[in-house]
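Researcher: Structure prediction, please.
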Amino acid sequence: MVQEINDIRYWVQADARFNVRAAVILRHGPDILVTPDEDQPGKFKLPGGAVKFGESGVVAAAREMKEELKLTTLTFAPAGTLEAFFTLAGTHYHQIILVNRCQVTATQAKAVAQLDPTTVDLAPDTKLRWVPVSQVRGHLLPPGIDSMLDMAAPYQYGVSHH
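Model: Predicted structure follows.
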């Protein structure tokens, strides 16, 4: 996690951090793009990143998909807001996650599957996977995003303590 200029990420105390993030549910047919969580086998994370001061969740999602996946012609639909409270490596987090949904074309899905992480704003060891939604449901981090996976679901609000 690299702190960039204007990221809405703040240390509130020596062991407490507040973040605003954009997450994207990228769908291609029955599949969703995820990254396996290295610290929690069997768990997955959605692509996305920090919202910058002055950005909406949709604008942040578009910027992150361009920076991380080289995808530039996407149409986003806000899916919901999730407040996540968790502890990681001794730091307590309060994150507000602005979740967006987006369908991608076969061409875009193939380009992401063939993407070299060293050519974009991702850690070089990042593993991107298209996985059936049925295999991801119940295994996404943070918990609570599952209710937002269905493309036709109404806007959701959730709170996750984990």
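Model: The beta strands are 9-13, 16-28, 31-36, 44-45, 48-50, 77-88, 91-103, 129-132, 140-141, 156-161.
Researcher: Thanks, that helps.
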